[in-house]
Amino acid sequence: MSTRVSLQQRIDDYLAERRRLGFELRSWDTFLAGFARYVADHKHRGPLTADLMIDWAKQDKWQRGTPPTWSVRLAKIRLLARYLKQFEPETEVPEELSFGPERGRLAPHIFHDQEVIDLLAAARQLEPSGSIRPAIYETLFGLMAAAGLRVSEALHLRDADVDLKRGLLTIRQTKFAKSRLLPVHPTTVAALAKYRKARARHVVTTPDMPFLISSRGRRLGMPLGDRQAHRVFNTLRDQLAWVNRGGHVAIRLHDLRHTFVVRRLMRWHADGTDIDQMMLALSTYMGHAEIFYTYWYLTAVPELMALAGGKFERFADLAGGDNE
């Protein structure tokens, strides 16, 4: 890999292969092209070295100068280096902790059932009374809690994507450029039907219209905005004064999605279901690009860590009994 062209071609092939596997990889072309230019500018010859990659990771254009930023940059280059080793076996792969421990994902707030009930009740009391606004937010929050949608997925639903007859939601081209069909519980179908009926009293329904609409003045019937949705949630959160049990500064709207995953895993555990056998189905339902994103919950959420610990203790007891 002695020229910029050959490295850039390897990068193009690498990105093409990853995208065929379903990864969207937004901005990776520009990111890795910058790395190729760096290699060429330094007139590097031969297989890539760890020192070269580490030095490049520190060349953050924003000049943040912080190890966590460098770690994020280096993590992407490590993936490329592992790919390149099949063509240049002497390619070095930098140590994962070259800049110290990586900043881990923080544990989410997992809602208690009563907290969700209180949130939906508070949404129903939103002003102005008699408008479609209370129904919009009750439906948004309830749908995220009942189906585990990302905020963006709920807001991007078109009316035609909500099939109440079959009880299916069509989630189109989401975070990882994949579309998927989600079955929803009959009680959720009933709640969505109630919202759609209420919405019809305020706006004319068309298949291409957004399912969740804005209710503000001239924007009535337009898509509900992300900023608006978060602002309303934050207002109700502060009003309800919940105790934050997560690792973030405050409880987030996105924690409703996390709660869905955790509650599903806890139900499976209570039912005696083999969770490992169900993880792929759950990962697909959630739209995770990699199944380890789903397994993360088992090691990061206190409720699930307790279940996993109990399972291990029973396994250890059985193993100990076999040795007696």
Describe this structure in words.
With 324 residues, the protein is mostly helical. The protein is 55% helix and 3% strand. It has helices at 4-20, 28-41, 50-57, 67-84, 113-124, 133-147, 151-155, 186-199, 226-240, 255-271, 275-286, 291-300, 302-323, and strands spanning 162-163, 168-171, 180-183. A three-stranded antiparallel beta sheet has the order 1-2-3, with no helix packed on it. Helix 3 packs antiparallel against helix 4 (67-84) and helix 6 crosses helix 10 (255-271). The termini are far apart. Residues 1-5 have low confidence and may be disordered.
Supply the key terms.
324 residues, 55% helix, 3 strands, 3% strand, elongated, three-stranded antiparallel beta sheet, disordered N terminus
Q: For the record, what is the CATH homologous superfamily label of the largest domain? A: Intergrase catalytic core
Which CATH class of the largest domain applies here?
A: Mainly Alpha
Helix content: 55-70%
What is the terminal separation in angstroms? Answer: 59 Å
Give a count of the beta strands, DSSP E runs of length 2 or more. 3
What is the general shape? elongated
Number of helices: 13
Largest sheet: 3 strands, antiparallel
Would you tell me the overall average pLDDT?
Answer: 86
CATH topology of the largest domain: hpI Integrase, Chain A
Question: Quick summary of this structure?
Answer:
The N terminus is likely disordered. The chain is built from 13 helices and 3 strands.
SSE order and pairing:
Elements (H helix, E strand, L loop, with lengths): L3 H17 L7 H14 L8 H8 L9 H18 L28 H12 L8 H15 L3 H5 L6 E2 L4 E4 L8 E4 L2 H14 L26 H15 L14 H17 L3 H12 L4 H10 L1 H22 L1
Antiparallel strand pairs: 1-2, 2-3
